[in-house]
Design goal:
By secondary structure, the protein is of the alpha+beta class. Helices cover 57% and strands 11% of the residues. It has three domains: 160 residues, Tetratricopeptide repeat domain (Serine Threonine Protein Phosphatase 5, Tetratricopeptide repeat, Alpha Horseshoe); 60 residues; 60 residues, SH3 Domains (SH3 type barrels, Roll), CATH 2.30.30.40.
């Protein structure tokens, strides 16, 4: 749906380019008629008439009870056969709803791409952001948003979008190239990724976790095999230790990828020029100035202020509405 992406030029492309009740029933009905009790009838005669009518009615009730039992069995069988039909109908309804939503999202994506092609970058960015808010998201959608924001002169918001795309597809060359190009336009203090962070960034957090899970399962299988086949314990001992070491390495990588991620506890300046102050007050003196697109490390928060630091370890406070907080 929204997996089409702009050319690294960048220029977005659409999907087509890369993207009754029968009335006679009532007429035959008549109201039940009851024999009139005349005044000259004696109580004895009435009792005799009631006894005769009782002998007539009771067999009829028995017959009707049998009919009701047959009807109940038929209804029960009907309910059982109707359950699969109802389930299938519900699935088809859900598929239809999802298909309609997909068509709407595809149309909105194409509309945003047309706005980008017409050099209406701010309007295109708004369209991409509406799609992101509606969900689901994709790397191409964040990539397009970053391109539109960059073309609008909003470097900080462009970097934030590129970073979101990179977290979903860390080895995409177009995403990485555009992110590096946008970062190169930022002047002044900022925080650069370390070698360890760049190395861990070659895989996403989910990919590191998947590798750790596979290594752990292999280790557990080898351990179980040693218990089930003691004669092979010495032969697979080295493989068990190797698998355990690899699993431990991947688990450490997962922890480092989570805690050392550049997106963790970081903010991106989204204003043209932001004053970082010594205290969380408008009257506090200036500590340093951060330009649009500067990436700072967040240390603390107090009301509407965030305490940040740059790569030179200068510390100050910045207004919350002047920066984008990484998710």
């Amino acid at each position: 749906m929204t997996n089409a992406r702009p050319h690294p030029d960048p220029l977005p492309r659409g999907e087509g380019d890369h993207g009754c009740v029968d009335e006679t029933f009532f007429s035959r009905h008549c109201r039940p008629r009851f024999a009139d009790i005349r005044r000259n009838q004696s109580p004895k005669n009435l009792h005799a008439r009631f006894a005769n009518s009782r002998r007539i009615i009771l067999p009829l009730l028995g017959e009707r009870a049998g009919v009701r039992a047959d009807v109940a069995k038929s209804l029960s069988a009907l309910r059982k056969s109707a359950l699969p039909v109802a389930g299938l109908s519900l699935v088809l309804l859900l598929i239809s709803v999802l298909s309609l939503r997909a068509d709407d999202a595809s149309s909105a994506f194409d509309a945003a791409n047309r706005l980008y092609a017409q050099n209406k970058f701010a309007a295109a960015a708004t369209g991409y952001e509406q799609l992101i808010a509606a969900g689901p998201v994709s790397p191409a959608l964040y990539f397009n948003l970053g391109n539109a924001r960059f073309k609008s002169g909003q470097i900080g918001r462009a970097i934030a979008a590129y970073r979101q795309a990179e977290s979903l597809t860390p080895r995409d060359p177009d995403v990485r190239a555009n992110l590096q190009f946008a970062r190169a336009q930022v002047s002044g203090p900022t925080v650069r990724a370390t070698l360890l962070q760049r190395t861990l960034g070659t895989l996403s957090l989910n990919e590191w976790a998947a590798l750790a899970a596979v290594a752990l399962w292999i280790t557990f299988v080898l351990l179980a095999w040693r218990q089930l086949r003691p004669s092979l314990a010495s032969a697979i001992q080295i493989w068990t230790r190797l698998a355990g070491a690899v699993a431990l390495t991947f688990c450490v990588a997962v922890a480092l990828a989570f805690f050392q991620s550049p997106a963790r506890n970081s903010v991106i300046v989204a204003a043209r020029e932001t004053t970082v102050r010594n205290g969380p007050f408008d009257e506090s003196p200036s500590a340093f100035t951060a330009n649009d697109g500067a990436e700072l490390h967040r240390l603390d928060r107090k009301d509407d202020w965030l305490q940040v630091t740059d790569d030179t370890r200068r510390i100050g406070w910045v207004k919350r509405d002047a920066v984008i907080v990484s998710p």
